Amino acid sequence: MRAQGLYRSLVVLFIVFAIGPPWGSEAQQPIRIGASLSLTGKYALQGGYARDGYLLYQKRVNQKGGVLGRSVEFVIYDDGSDEKTAVRLYEKLIAEDQVDAVMGPYSSPITDAVAEVTEKHRKLMVAPMAATSSIWEKGRRYLVMLLSPVEVLPEGVLDLAARNGLKTLAVINEDALVGKAATRGAIELAKKKGLELVC
Hints:
The chain is of the alpha/beta class. The chain has helices spanning 2-19, 44-63, 83-96, 108-120, 155-163, 177-192; strands spanning 31-37, 72-78, 101-103, 125-127, 143-145, 168-170, 196-198. The protein has 2 domains: 2-147, Rossmann fold (3-Layer(aba) Sandwich); 151-198, Rossmann fold (3-Layer(aba) Sandwich), CATH 3.40.50.2300. The strands form 2 sheets. A 5-stranded parallel β-sheet has the order 2-1-3-4-5, sandwiched between helices. A two-stranded parallel sheet has the order 6-7. The longest helix has 20 residues, at 44-63.
């Protein structure tokens, strides 16, 4: 229950900072939130879950009277798990559809690509499905991270290894943004715990 209240408060703050207070002639218009999601392609399963989550939020918040007296309406496009398509779609959402706010796509690589668009337009984007720290290390001012950085994800397994007397571990990873970030994090964490990693 507390987590739901915290999440709702976060969304209200996001909307206030993104679109301003709800007075004036806009007060009765729905708050339009745009996003591209991977509804097809290699991330389709996760993108489908994300869409379901966004639409569930829309339904629940509207049942309770909306946010700041306004209903919420998501505008969601399929980016096909493709970075270039997502970039075009965020341009469309911001410049043509003129959504009030944007939420992030699925995956760190796609979020990294579309963050250039949101930065250019000075449009705040909450990224609930990206966790690679390098995305935020580029001096971006309009990007909010919600997940723990992927670089710290190996900490639990490395703690377990150290407590059980293991000295050397091998890391096998995908040659991609998230895999490389997790490996970098594992190497740093292993050093702190006195473990040797073979990559």
